[in-house]
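Holo model, adenosine monophosphate. Inputs:
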Amino acid sequence: MRYVIVDVEATCWENSKDRSSMEIIEIGAVVLASSQGPALAEFSEFIKPVAEPRLSAFCTQLTSITQEQVDAAEYFWTVFPRFVEWIGSEPFRLCSWGGYDLNQFRQDCQRHKLQLPATFEPHINLKKEFARLFKVKLCGMATALKIARLPLEGVHHRGLDDARNIARLAQLMLPRLEAETHARTGR
Ligand code: AMP
Ligand code: MG
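Output:
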């Protein structure tokens, strides 16, 4: 089975407005050929937000994404179909750290009247699986890397760098998840 590890960055504010104001400004993803890799390809694109086109200083500080980068980007309705096309038609399982990324895709698809592909579910919540397999509390990606004794590579809170780091955590977990599925279903 192929695995697509995705991480999105979104508009945000220090004194968080409600979640419905957030919009994706970057999609980063890595596709693994199988549960143990290797990484076959990577996706990285900025997206121009429509609801709150000006990034807050907080958002730029958190993500390092600049106003110029999103201003020069295309809208979600153009970039998202390109992401779906990049994934391709071969079967895959979508994975991310927590439920946030899939929820944000759902919200932005609704906003832009796009269909969330049915293939995005069932989604693997690696944060939940990490807590279960490593017998620890739910934690952020940076903490999980420390627990797994893996270095945090690249810039945290950037889509592709986060996706690459999450992919390395995924490679520790996916073989075990596949073995569990096999034991349960014979597949
Ligand atoms: P992450 O994948 O952890 O980089 O987070 C994804 C998105 O969640 C970010 O682009 C922000 O929109 C939001 N986010 C993450 N951490 C925070 C935070 N400490 N405060 C407000 N929003 C955040
Ligand atoms: Mg991120």
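The pocket of magnesium ion (ligand 2) is lined by residues 7, 9, 157, 159, 162 (CB under 6 Å). The beta strands are 2-10, 24-32, 39-48, 74-75, 92-96, 124-125.
Archived with the compound record.
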